[in-house]
User: Which sequence fits this backbone?
């Protein structure tokens, strides 16, 4: 029998929560799924304590464990650092990793403070390394199909876009005051998950030029543990009128207190020749209307993801059998490797991510001012 | 054999187009459907020429025909005047009919000019007669169910609303310049059909307090017959951020160049205890999410219209068998008769309609100014 | 002013229940909707008592009222007799009307006893008059679109069909024993509403050649008023494997104890080039898959009914605005008039209806025998 | 830094195709996903040639590679053998592995010949080892929810079930004659994928007692490479009326030439108190109707999979974010490990799998005979 070996990239993973596990699965799965990349060496895992780190390293298949993220970042066995810690820690970790010559795969958003996001982008620019963000929804094969159809002109010039993102984890008015209701967590729905919406717009249609936002608090206060109530400081609902640099108009609206919505990202793209509609809760479907052929048989087509929609076929050779959320991270991982290899890839790098941050802050500013605000160009 | 007789209201109908036929069907159907009202006497029908009027009178079952709308309005046999002519004619006809002591059933919107709408409301106030507008979507039994659930507090206080109205009759960029692209027709999508959206918001949730609008022209010009192109003067897309008097926030967006959408009115109402969703293209369904019971069996319920949703059962005793658009006008007609009889009814009268007109003009003003605009109170 | 007049057909309507009202609405609506037929003279209405008849005649717009159906049938003012009485009365009334030289529009099914259905067909044949049945679902514009697409070969040869019909009016096991549970009412779901399914198959794809059926009683007994329980004699569920004369295979299944289903008629037609899917609970939609074009954009198209799907446009000039159940009867009425006028029309006449009855009885026989049974040719 | 270690089960995987990759991903993912099992040792991978085996071992993370499946099965490092080879090889491999004292995870179906399936079941019985089959659809969290709701009696006694399985990989009549059209491949749709349908019925509702089947060939012949056509020997469509041991009736229908269907498994379960509906193409949804509460708010609830539906939360902590097909295999893997550990688990073992095989052969026999056939009890 021959012994398998691996000359793949050395991986360091910081964080083992929701996204930490997701990165771990991606690093475990990318070689079996794609077959055309060397199996990564899962070198070092960092968690809050040595013991936690050791247990997760065992489960996730990492060779070594540590509670010292700097040690991980500086480890010569590590080529790529996965950063899945709370947002406030991203900047320091990412910048240090880039300075150590590592590639960085950092979860979104970049950082609560715009200045930190700008420093991250500057560090990436200076490093010459690959630095990408975890905007995984753009990796969905049906979203990639949307992009291909738009880029090929199948819709004609796009003149209007709408994105709704709705979840209900803040919908219960009696849910106790938590971190997410405090001003230190950011604006609320807008930066908590609205950034995903902007990643989709930017990837599919290009940057937002100007915006006029509105933020709302469905519940003015929430109970504290002590039997009293505390005023809510963040906006669970945010909406904006937007204009894109392309000239298209649009609206975005984000609601994290939308009862019954669980992972809705409803995207509607209107062009002069057709329309695309995607609902993230129906993950493997996209609706396409083309103003073609006899009108009596025109209608929105429900296209089910299948092997004709790369890279679906790397996961499952049969159409209509459904990818899942975690599979997107495997694709994102494959795109990251491609980018490191200098090949064409689809990802949101720190430069593009900074533009998303600028957009978010422009919406927030416009909501405060009650007027339209221009989005500052990335790097400006 | 006994001879049937009728002591019902005497009806005069002006106009025989889309809405004229719709009113005619309603006046023919209201007694068979409801059974509890005297069969109206279809007295006089008015069309552009005597010949057209005669032919339509025969088909629609009217006793007499005329091409003189004033003669119709002044006819002593006429108790109610149905006005289904182009919008620019509404004011003169409605005001004259009210002054003649007739009840008026006028198609929406009231009038292109706000001043005319205000004169219509004043005439209605002065007349003591019933004057209602053809906002038929509020009559859909599932919309009425929405209203009942909201009014009963099943959703808790409503904190957010979204309405999208989309059709595609202006979606083809090569469709020739027509009336609807000229400034004389109004603002565009906003007043052309967006008024329906506001009728739903106002009926379900109360008046809009302030708005921040945006209008867009997906196609800057359209071909004329002469081989050249003419700049489009109306906005086929209009959107607005809104705040209701109730304190709820929301967005509305209207697009008459939305390829593939045919009669979409997508309504989402979010409250502290649940969510309602309606899509007019699925006319007999409403989606209800209630944050009740075990979480593993929570989900949006697709409620199909049936006899438990009055007045569906007057049309069909079996649930799930579908009402249609024209049936809404029959319900509207029954509500009008109830109102004439001094009974409780659901309709948009001239007062409420004026508030819709004010809302539309506020959105248009805000779009011009790029700021939020307060909606003037009706009658102010 | 000119006085309207009518030289249309003279109508006699027997029955004022669910279907009686539906016929009344159709006779009132057919001229306004279609415009190209003379307005029928609503001559005589027959109900159980003179008083009931008089009241319904007033509401429905009939000139005269009677409680004597023979008088109605023999009335010289009556050209067409609408029969909407309980099934057991159809044969006698229809046969007498045909013998009196009247055209007959009889609700489905023909008669509980096959011999009666055969006598009805023989009477129709002998009369030279038009005799059609109320199989209204075939009149839905989207069903007519299905027929057109199949007839044009857009699906290629059809090789498989499935029809599911489900309602829940018998779903409650504690609903008291009623007429429908007694053997005198027929077989149960099979003839109660399954006949509609066969009308669709026959209209779209031609006659059923052989069948192998199964009937089931979800609840063996039901409570009586007296506090005891009585064995159920009819089958609330019926299913069959079928082969069509065309060679296609298929299944049909009917369930009137299917909780949550209200008016589901789910039709799936598979051909060598595509597939059609219709769900009656989404009345104005049909799904079409064509194996054409690039595979990455293939998908089921949701086609919304509109004016391109005749005769939708006679009701509403705008697409996607929804016809309803009662509108189908207006179309059926128009087809009946066309047939009387000797023009092409779509309807299920007594001959075709008899084939449906034979099919039903073949399914029932096969269920009893546990083997396949050949459907006797109509008229054999 | 601490070094990770693994004392997990030793794994041997035979086959690297569709299902081979799927097993590999499951063995890689089960520890990261569930966290509560020791990370398996990926010991030996077997492929057709040493070179292929070596390459896949590298990508899949296996220590060693071989082209000799007997060597793998007999390897002392191997505790569990994953068998993902063509069906005809299952029996020999599984029986040898069981005799070597290994646990076996074999892809479905068991074997083309019933006698082989019986020998496999006998070998499992004799071995005292765990032997399960790859019926992964039962592992979907929403299918497990269906099972829980049925087992808890939320639907009341189930009286009817329908399963439709449709794909279109054989829908093109001009697709060349291939293995699947030859009699050596089995009956056709019935055993090719219909077995999944029976795995669902058996898991949710218990065994099938008797069946009456029908098989159809939509296309009598297919082109060969040589320019001629060859008669098709298998049935691309199979349907059956069924009765369960529970007394419930039902239908199953399988169609692998159903244009537009990609992975449809449409399951409808009817009980005296409610209905469940699942469509595999909408993988993360289940529809539940309960005859509870006010009738005006009753409707099918679309329940989206989330952490409340174990083990969804092991994959993603947020609801509505979608699992995929490959995740089911990870769950199946976890259930296998639980079973090896002597803990409660959900899987189709060789005994239950044999019952599925008997059901399939009963359907085939009944289709040949045109009569109902009793399903032989497993092991009889």
Assistant:
């Amino acid at each position: 029998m021959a012994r398998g070996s691996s000359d793949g990239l050395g991986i360091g993973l910081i964080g083992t929560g929701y996204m930490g596990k997701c990165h771990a699965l991606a690093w475990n799965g990318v070689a079996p799924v794609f077959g055309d990349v060397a199996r990564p060496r899962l070198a070092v895992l960092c968690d809050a304590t040595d013991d936690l780190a050791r247990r997760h390293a065992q489960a996730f298949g990492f060779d070594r464990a540590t509670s010292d993220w700097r040690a991980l970042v500086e480890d010569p066995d590590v080529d790529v650092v996965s950063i899945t810690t709370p947002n406030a820690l991203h900047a320091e970790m990412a910048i240090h990793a880039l300075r150590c010559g590592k590639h960085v795969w950092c979860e979104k958003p970049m950082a609560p403070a715009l200045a930190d996001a700008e420093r991250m982008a500057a560090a990436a620019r200076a490093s010459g390394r690959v630095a990408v963000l975890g905007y995984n929804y753009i990796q969905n094969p049906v979203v990639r199909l949307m992009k291909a159809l738009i880029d090929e002109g199948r819709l004609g010039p796009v003149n209007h876009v709408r994105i709704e993102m709705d979840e209900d984890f803040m919908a219960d008015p009696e849910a106790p005051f938590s971190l997410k209701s405090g001003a230190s967590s950011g604006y609320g729905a807008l930066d908590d998950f609205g950034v995903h919406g902007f990643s989709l717009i930017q990837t599919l249609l290009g940057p937002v030029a100007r915006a006029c936002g509105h933020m709302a608090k469905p519940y003015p206060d929430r109970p504290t543990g002590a039997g009293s109530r505390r005023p809510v400081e963040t906006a669970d609902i945010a909406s904006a009128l937007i204009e894109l640099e392309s000239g298209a108009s649009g609206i975005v609206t984000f609601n994290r207190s939308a009862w019954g919505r669980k992972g809705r990202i409803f995207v509607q793209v209107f062009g002069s020749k057709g329309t695309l509609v995607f609902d993230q809760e129906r993950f493997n479907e996209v609706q396409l209307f083309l103003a073609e052929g006899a009108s009596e048989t025109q209608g929105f087509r429900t296209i089910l993801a299948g092997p004709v929609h790369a890279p679906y076929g790397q996961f499952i050779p049969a159409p209509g059998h459904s990818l899942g959320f975690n599979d997107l991270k495997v694709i994102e991982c494959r795109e990251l490797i491609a980018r490191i290899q200098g090949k064409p890839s689809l990802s949101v790098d720190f430069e593009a991510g900074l533009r998303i941050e600028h957009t978010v802050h422009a919406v927030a500013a416009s909501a405060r001012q009650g007027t339209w605000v221009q989005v500052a160009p990335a790097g400006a």
Q: What stands out?
A: Residues 79 and 107 of chain C are 17 Å apart (CA to CA). Chain C touches chain A at residues 145, 149, 154, 288, 290, 295-304, 308-309 (CB under 8 Å).
